[in-house]
Design goal:
Blueprint: E1 4-9, E2 12-17, H1 22-28, E3 52-55, E4 62-63, E5 74-76, H2 80-94, H3 111-118, E6 142-144, H4 154-161, E7 169-171, E8 178-180, H5 197-201, E9 207-209, E10 222-227, E11 236-242, E12 245-251, H6 264-268, E13 283-284, E14 293-294, H7 297-315, E15 322-324, H8 330-344, E16 349-351
Parallel strand pairs: 1-5, 15-16
Antiparallel strand pairs: 1-2, 3-4, 3-5, 6-9, 7-8, 10-11, 11-12, 13-14
């Protein structure tokens, strides 16, 4: 049985699970505590200091994402002391961040922008030198805009904890600190698998997919849950769709097979859907040696059934064979082999992954 503790957050009595952080307990109770470096799929590190809260009888503020609940603690998330520290942290972040929200690709889905709006911060009170990094467009999947990076380390932790590749890390020190690969090379020369999970968890536009760029704002896009067609694992995610076109992919963190994780094909391999040469109708030859012509699905499937029957009748079931595909689901491959054995009467079943 899970042990529970009684705590109070902003005057509300809450039963929290022992071992939970204050942030987790507050979120479960519907109390919003701002955060930037935190992500539910990652281990907390308390780096951004935006989730600082005021705990009764404690001298200092504490990050809610790393502070575990204890019996009887009294937490204030909106005390003047906490709000002042939070605003200070946000202004420090914005002091080295471009204020180009009108043209930024992440407008409407940027967590930093949302917090700046919430706290009414139009500009930082700490003007000074800012970094001037060139936009990195060297890989075909996403762009890296270091000027918009807030060093939250979400991408680094994701590459380590979720994908287990460790292709990126915080390199350099002090003012020169940035997220990069070994020797600050291009992603293609690193162990990166381009799964896109770093892009998924980035709270700003520091990492931005090239697919769907400048084709729609966040509020114009509909998210449609689907299953990836590339293999039989059954990974699920959301397709970002606008006007019938796929603009990108978003993780579905409660998906049972992949828990939000994707591979490079599932994340970025959607150009084929709208390719002008993609077949959208079955093609059949109505006469032997004739040209391929468009047909309806019923006509095409009837023709296939007739040809199958003719093969079995003229040459026997052993003249028939089926080749499965790793791009099909396990259920589709099961149905295919069942059709071969139970309907056609042959065990000539093979799989493309063995070739």
């Amino acid at each position: 049985m899970t042990e529970t503790v009684s705590i109070t957050i902003d005057g509300q009595a809450i039963q929290a699970r022992a071992g939970q952080s204050i942030l987790e307990a507050a979120t479960a109770a519907g109390i919003k505590i701002p955060a930037l470096c935190h992500h539910p799929a990652l281990k907390p590190i308390g780096a951004c200091r935006v989730c600082l809260v005021d705990i009764a009888f404690e001298r200092a503020l504490h990050p809610a994402c790393t502070y575990e609940v204890r019996q009887g603690i009294e937490v204030h998330t909106r005390s003047p002391k906490a709000e002042e520290a939070r605003r200070f942290a946000l202004e420090l972040i914005l002091s080295d961040h471009p204020l180009d929200c009108m043209t930024c690709e992440r407008t409407g889905s940027c967590e930093l922008q949302d917090l700046a709006y919430q706290y009414g911060i139009k500009e930082s009170q700490f003007p000074g030198t800012q970094h001037e990094y060139a936009l990195d467009t060297s890989n075909p999947f996403y762009e890296r805009d270091y000027e918009k990076c807030i060093l939250c380390r979400r991408c680094v932790r994701t590459c380590d904890e979720i994908n287990g590749v460790e292709a990126i890390a915080v390199i350099q020190r002090g003012w020169d600190s940035k997220i990069g690969t070994a020797f600050d090379g291009i992603m293609q020369d690193s162990p990166c698998e381009f799964c896109g999970m770093c892009v998924e968890v980035c709270p700003t536009a520091a990492l931005q997919p090239r697919l769907g760029k400048q084709q729609g704002r966040a509020w114009e896009v509909e998210k449609v849950a689907t299953t990836c067609p590339y293999c039989g694992v059954g990974c699920q995610f959301y397709l970002k769709v606008k006007d019938g076109r796929i603009l990108g992919v978003a993780s579905k963190w409660d998906a049972p097979a992949n828990h939000g994780w994707t591979c490079v094909k599932g994340r970025y391999g959607w150009d084929f859907v709208h390719h002008p040469e993609r077949l959208t109708q079955p093609l059949i030859r109505r006469e032997k040696g004739g040209e391929l012509e468009e047909a309806g699905w019923d006509e095409a499937l009837d023709l296939v059934a007739q040809r199958f029957k003719a093969i079995v009748k003229d040459h026997g079931p052993q003249a028939f064979g089926t080749l499965a595909s790793a791009k099909c689901t396990n259920e589709e491959n099961f149905a295919m082999q069942k059709f071969s054995r139970a309907v056609i009467g042959t065990n000539n079943v093979d799989h493309c992954a063995r070739l």
